[in-house]
Amino acid sequence: MPAPADLPFDMDSLPPAVREAFAAMQANVAGLEARTERQDYLIAELRHALYGKRSEQLGPDERQLAFEDLETAVAEAEAARDALVERNADGKPRRTIY
Q: In degrees rounded to 5, what are phi and psi of residue 2?
């Protein structure tokens, strides 16, 4: 007997409200995955700036510029998160899940 996950699922058989909620959750998951990728990239950049081959050759000014770029990227990510939190279909503030 096949497992329930192996059976095809007909979205049209669901009520419209459930389909909308499912679509909203899919969009939320996609947004979270994109944010996770961005955070992974920022962490890799920070590690490279701190411990990479050229990290010992960076002067204080160059290192400060690298950290300012990272701070700017983090601020942009936080602003995007805040905008996502404030959006909700019924106008109520959305709870964040971290």
A: -70, 150
